[in-house]
Structures are given as C-alpha cells and as structure tokens.
Amino acid sequence: MQQRTINTTQCFHCGDQCIGASVVFDEKAFCCKGCSSVYQILNKSNLCDYYNIHDASGVKLPEVLDQQKFAFLDNAAIAANYIVFSKPNQSAVKFYLPQIHCSSCIWLLENLQKVHTGIYFSSVHFPTKEATVHFNPASISIRAIAELLASIGYEPYITMDDGQATKRHQKMVSRTALVKIGIAGFCFANIMMLSFPEYLGLETITVDGLNATLFRYINLLLALPVLLYSGSEFFINSWFSVKQRRLNIDAPIALALAVTFSRSVYEITTGTGGGYLDSMSGIIFFMLLGRSFQTKTFADLSFNRDFKSYFPVAVCLVNQNGTTTYKPVQDVQVDDTIRIRSNEVIPVDGMHILGKAEIDYSFVTGENEPTSVPIGDLVYAGGKQLNGPIDLLVVKPFSQSNFTRLWNNDAFKKTDKNIYSYTTVISNYFSLVVLTVAFSSFVYWYDTNTAFAWQAMTAVLIVACPCALLITATFTEGFVLNIFSKHGLFLKNAQVLQTIAAIDQVVFDKTGTLTYPHASSVTYSGEPIAPKDLQVITAMVAQSLHPLSKAISKELGEANIILEHVKEIAGAGIEAWENEAHYKIGSAKFVGNELAEAAGSEVWVSIDQIIYGKFIVQNILRAHVNRLIHELPYPVSVLSGDNNRSEQYLKAQLHRPIGYHFNQSPEAKLQFINALQANGQSVMMVGDGLNDAGALSKSDVGIAVVDNTIQFSPASDAIMLSEQLPLLDQYIKAAQWSKRLIKTTFVISTLYNVIGLYFSVTAQMSPLVAAILMPSSTFTIVFSTMIGSALIQKFCFKPIIDLKPTRL
Amino acid sequence: MIVIVFLLIISLLVATGFLIAFIWGSKTGQFDDNFTPAHKVLFDQTNQPTENK
After folding, report:
1. Residue B4: inside a domain, yes or no?
2. Which pLDDT band, with edges at 50, 70 and 90, does A395 fall under?
C-alpha cells in the first residue's frame, strides 16, 4: 500500500514541505514514516476530524521512537508520581505534553477513548499543556498510555525536576492574586458610589434623622478587606525590607496606605469628614492590577531548570540473573550495574563493562566530538551515549557524581544578581522629597493652626505616594513584556527588561547559538565518486549514529541498499565490504592518509585503499546573524567549547573584529563573564546548552536560545526562539525605549502630584479633589503607556525575515 | 430617606452575591484555563466516520 514518490507537496499531517522522497498513504502525502503512522492510527479510530479543525496541525514524530523509553513507568513507585487519583477500576494520570499548540490538539487528546477502550475520558489544560487521562488500570497501563501519546506525536515530557508540587503552588498563587484584585475592585467601586454625597457636598443634609454618616461607616467596613487582605502584601513586603535594612518600593506605599487609613478613621469617627477611603482602595486596586499584568507568567516555560531536569527519571538496572528492572535515579547504589541505551544521558559515574561506549560530552564540555571509552575505563555523568546500549558498573551514587558536584559548586549556583532597578532609585529620591515636603508643611502650619498642620501633612502623604511611579513602571513593563513574548522572547520577570536596557557587553556561545545546532554544510572535495560507490557510502553513514555521519547522511539522502558486511570502529571510522570492494570512511589516519593534518570535521573516503577525497562538515551560521553582530553597538565576544578550526569561517562571515575564545570549558565561560563584570561591565550572555548554564546564571542578562519552547533550556533570565536571534539588537533598543517611556510618564504623574501637593500644603484638599485627581492621573498614565508601547512596537521592530507564528 | 438605606443594603447584598460567586469561581480554578473550554464547545460530537478532506 505504501509507495514512494518524488514531489514537493505539503505533508498532510504536519504541514512541512515533503523534501525528496515522501510517503504516500490513502492518496495523501506525508513527509516521513512517522507522520503517516500517526495518520494510520487516527484513521483507524475515526479521528480524522483532527485534520479538519486545522489543516496539517499534526506534530512530527522524532526520527527514532525508543521502545524502551517509558519502560520505567512499569515501576509502581515512579508511576505514582504522575497518578492524580486511583481507585480499583478507575485511575487518572497527568502528563505534561509540551507539543500541545492548537485546538486540534485539544480535540484529539480529549477523544483518546476512541483510540483505546481502556481509556474512559481525558481532559486538557491548555495554559500548562497538561493532559489528565482517566483510565481503567485493568485494561491499560500507565506505560501504555505514555506510549500511545508518544505514538500520535504527543510524547509526555517527564523529568525529575519538574515536580508537580511547584506547579500546583504557582496555580494557587495566581488564584489568590485574582481574588485579591476582585475584592479590591468590588470595594473600590462601592466605596466610590457611597462617597457621592461627599463629592456633591450633601453630607451635612439630614433627612428623616439620617445623614451621610451611615454611608461613611459602610465605606469603612468596605475598606477593611481591601487594606487587610488585598493590600496585605505591601505591608508584608515592606516589613521584610525594613528587617533587611533596605528600603524597597513597597515601603513608601505601605506608609501612604497606613496614613490614609488612619486619617480616614479619625475623620469618620470624629465626624469631621469622609476620609479618603476611595483613593486608598483605588490605589490598591490599580497597583494589584498593574502587578498582575506585569508578572504575567508563562505557565509552560521553566526558567529555573537545573541539570536535574536533563537526566532521566529512572535507570535500567541489570540484575544478577540478566533481567532488567527500573529504579529511580536517586536510589542507584555503588556496584549496581546499569544499562544505558542509545541517546540516553548517563546519570551517574560508572565503569564501562559492556558494549561500545561512544560518549558525547558536549553538554558538559561544549566539545562536539564524541569520545570513545574502552572497556574498563570510567564514564562520567552528563555524557550522552551514542552507539547502542552499554552496561556500566556504578562507582559513585547520583548525589556524588562529578557532574552533580560540579553543579553544586558555588560558582554555578544562582547568585543574587546585582539588582539594577532605576525605579527603586527614583522612588527612593521621590519618597525623600515627599517626606521633606510633608514635614515642612507641618512645621509651616504648626504655629498658626495645629489641626491644619496635621491635615496638610497627611494630605501630602496621601496625594504624593509613589503609586503613580509604580503604576507607570508596572504597566509599561507589562505592555513591553507582552510585545516581546508575541515576538518570541520570553522574559522571566519585568526586572530583566530594566537590566537589558543597561547592558554594555554581549557574549555569544558559538555552537547552537550563532550556528545552527544540527544543520551543517557538507562539501565534498576530491576525485568524483561513481554512483554505485556513492550508494554504498550512503548506506554506511545511514546506519551510524556519529554526528558527522548523520550530517553527511542528511546530505546524501536515504540509503537504498542494505549492507551486510559493515563495521564501525569507534573514534576512527566505518568500513564495509560490498561490490567486492573495501570501502573505508573516517579520519585521515583511518583511511591511511598520513599526510593530511588531523582536523576533526573532515571525513575521508577510500575505496580499496585508494583515497578519493574528503567530506568537510561545518556548522553554519544562522541566517542574518552577521547583520546582528554588525548592528550591535556593544563590544561582542564569542565563546566556544569547540576547538578553533571554525575561526577562519567565522572571521570571513562576520565583518567585524570581535573577540574569539575557543576551547572554553563551562567554568572558563563563567570566569570570562566574571572577569568582565569585575571591570564594571554589565554583560548579556546568549547561549543554548548546559555548558553555558554557569555563564548564563552569572551574567547580568542570560538569554537561552531554543528552537522551540519544548526544548530543554538551562536556567536563564530569558528564553528566546532561535529564529528571533537576529532581532536581538531591536529587543535591546525596545528595552531602552521602554525605560525612556517610564521616565516620561513619570514626569506626567509628577505634574499631577504637584497639583495635588498644592492643594495639600495649602490645606485645601477636599474629598472631591482627591477623588478626581487619583483616577485621572491613573488613567492618563495607563493611556500614555499604552500609546507609548504601541509606538515602541511599531518603530523598534522591523522584521528582516518572515517571522513564523510563535508556537508557544 | 429610609428607602435609600433599604435599597443600599439590597444593592450591596446583590453585589456581594456576585463577589462570592467570583471568589468561588477563582478558588475552584474556573479562570485557570480560558482556552480549552472556549474551543471545546465548537467541536462536533460525531461517532460515525466523517469524510476526510
């Protein structure tokens, strides 16, 4: 039923261009076997409506589906972490499926019961990309559910680190914030309504023995939950800041709130006035609103992943009698024998006892070339096995492995960054000025009229609290954060925006950041190879997992013949006997070329001892990166864990003298950032791998570059989609403009404050003036920040490439 | 005047009812996900095979 055709149509399942050979099934074209197999599963279960909701909405399957990947879920203790509830005939399991991206996904995942009868129903939580599956444990296992999800393109993402508890905690926090805003808004609106007699000067009129006093007491009652519940965080935060002997921005607000409330209570109980409870609850309401806007979190992104989320959850243990069981990584003990399969990360240090170990340590060292380890030698945690299963004898438990120790080293710990916040600086000056004005007006009035003196001083504190400044900053940053995330740069918090505006040095990682992580340019130089021989070479590289073979294989296309006599020598090359000839590809030494200089990214070809030529594999720069480097108005450095063979290429491509530093270990990268910071520089580090993690957390702004938001990213301040990297200079410019916008709107709010202060120090502050000033200043600020942010978006972002829609 | 006080109390009670409904809604997570339910209602409930594009 399956046949191959050559065309360039769109894949029916995932929408990618079908390059070269495509798979045709049911008269529909698919780009790969994975996509067509998903279609077959869905077709069998009558779920092809999936494609009617969105065209070609499918998720591409990884090239190799590992049959054993979810075997560890058979271990009840591990599986228990993912079970939400369990009864004898019904259980529910919750998985994080980062591939969820559109309504088709929801439709498919909520119709899982049609694929397997053991599933009762399932539900999707879109913001966190979690699916809860209710199933009958008697007819389907958790492992089978995970494998079923993986087979239709939604492979559960399971790590040690992404604990369920923290997510639940975050959810609770955001719900509480919502309730706080709701209560503040409710009370604010009602207090304003009940203050109408005050605004209209009707409070002294008595009808039927009743006057506005009742309204005032109801206001007081309504203000209590606002102050004590909604506004509690201002008091708590400022209390902590006072305890640490460092004034934060909440302290002047807490003071203003306390003064406003006490004066209002005094006025109401003595019957001298209506107080300023409307202003007070309005301030709390707008502040909370602004903060919720600013702290809009990306529920499915994780900025704090450490190395643990990179390791497998469980390891395969080989028992004495040869059978295998699964055990959580933390429980692995010394002298256990563990089995590591291809493409698995080694979680513990161990002695290599069986198989062919070819370890890619690029995540630890940044060096791209795999290392082959002979039997009996040590294999270190953090490496990735490339060539078939190997057995290791554990020599150190997980918590003591070299890698874990390196990460628990102080240098790699998330340090308290030197917090540069101009809003804090401005607000400190502002508070000082306000306190001076308040105190002076008190002194000025004290001799003539003591009551006026108190009134003037409290009015100054009420009117001129730094709330306007805070609202300015929170709303501007909220808007800009939204603009950034729409364009594919996700900031951890608003603080990062202020830090970006102040950087004066940019450091890039090379592999995976400036260059494409996988795409490499493969060029062949030498004698032409006959098509018959090329077929053999194609088949040779196709069966190898070595990164160079993979790169060449991608260039040569799929193999059409199956080799019978083929041998891969780790660290050297591949040889095969076919067509009565002896083919060898690999290092210069392996094919017998003693003259050539040893260079890592060259693959030599020889047939029957005659050297034909070599494939040169080179990482290529991402599109438009040279423009970016040219445009950046800061000193730029490139750090790479690789050797310096790509220096010439980089120098030729980047038309700008910049600093190159090769053979940098993760610690060296960290030290490099340290040295720059010691010179007083504010450094932005852009990297992608675990080997950059130390530098990313040390730098003032660490940006992790990812190809999609599903991918693992080290702890960082911001996550950027790789196709946005060429626009980095525009983001920096936008951050700087947002700083200017905050300053401008702050000037506007100061003007309002000056008007308010005039009324206050002359002791003419009436409830009506306060009631007009406060909301109108807030609305002016929100409005001008909105317009300003729209202008920033319009003028700072000039797309130089067609931006793909963000798949968050 | 007494009627204003009466209306005032009624209006506050009604508004409080909505506030309580809001608090209940947020505490039980009804505002956690505003994407899935909005799209779910648009899906047709079909059990028979449908024509593919």
Report:
1. yes
2. confident
Token couple for A707: 């190809």
pLDDT score for A5: 44
Q: What is the C-alpha R_g of chain A?
A: 32
Of A190 and A248, the structure prediction assigns the larger pLDDT to A190
Provide the shortest C-alpha distance from residue B10 to chain A (in Å): 13
Cβ contact (<8 Å) for B5 and A175? no
The reply to whether A511 and A647 lie within a common domain is yes
Report the pLDDT value the prediction gives residue A314, as an integer from 0 to 100.
Answer: 78
Judge if A235 and A200 occupy the same domain. Answer: yes
Residues 6+ apart with CB under 8 A from A322: none
Are A630 and A511 contained in the same domain?
Answer: yes
Tell me the chain B residues in contact with residue A46 when contact means C-beta distances shorter than 8 Å. Answer: 47-50
Question: Which residue, of A125, A158, A191, is where some domain finishes?
Answer: A158
Whether the per-residue pLDDT at A478 is higher than 90: the answer is no
Please give the residue that has the higher pLDDT: either A51 or A148. Answer: A148
| Structural domain that includes position A24 | 3-46
Q: Give dist(CA A92, CA A142) in Å, integer.
A: 9
The answer on A235 and A139 residing in a single domain is no
- Say if residue A136 is in the same domain as residue A274: no
Predicted local confidence at residue A807, as pLDDT: 38
Is there a domain that residue B34 lies in? no
Total structural domains in chain B?
1
Domain finish residue from A412, A433, A458: A412
* Same domain as A383, residue A236: no
Q: Tell me: the pLDDT tens digits for A383-394?
A: 888 777 888 888
Which value does ipTM take for this structure?
Answer: 0.84
Over residues A446-476, the pLDDT tens digits come to 888 887 788 788 878 777 766 777 778 888 8
Alpha helices, DSSP H, located in A374-414: 402-408
The CATH number covering residue A145 comes to 3.30.70.100
Domain boundaries, position B17: 1-25
Q: What is the mean pLDDT of residues A437-441?
A: 87
Contact B50 A49 (CB under 8 A): yes
Selecting from A103, A174, A210 the residue whose C-beta is nearest the C-beta of B5 gives A210
Are B29 and A175 in contact (CB < 8 Å)?
A: yes
Residue A315 domain flag: yes
> How many structural domains is chain A composed of?
5
Q: Which positions ≥6 away from A521 have C-beta within 8 Å?
A: A617, A618, A620
- Section A28-36 average pLDDT: 76
Confirm if A634 and A504 have CB atoms less than 8 A apart.
yes
Q: From the list B19, B22, B39, which residue is nearest A106 (CB)?
A: B39
Distance CA A64, CA A288 (A): 49
Q: Kindly state whether residue A552 falls inside one of the protein's structural domains.
A: no
Instruction: Tell whether A532 is covered by a domain.
Output: no
Q: Which is more confident, A54 or A530? A: A530
Residues of chain B contacting A171 with CB distance shorter than 8 Å: 29, 32
User: In the predicted model, what is the mean pLDDT of chain A?
Assistant: 79
Residue numbers in A near B50 (CB within 8 A): 46, 48-49, 52
How far apart, in Å, are the Cα atoms of A312 and each of A10, A138, A308, A316?
35, 27, 8, 10
The answer to whether the CB atoms of B1 and A214 lie below 8 A apart is no
Strands (E), A309-408: 314-318, 324-328, 337-340, 350-354, 357-360, 371-373, 378-379, 384-385, 390-394
Q: Judge whether residue A201 has pLDDT over 80.
A: no
**CATH number for the domain harbouring residue A671:** 3.40.50.1000
Tokens of A298: 């990306």
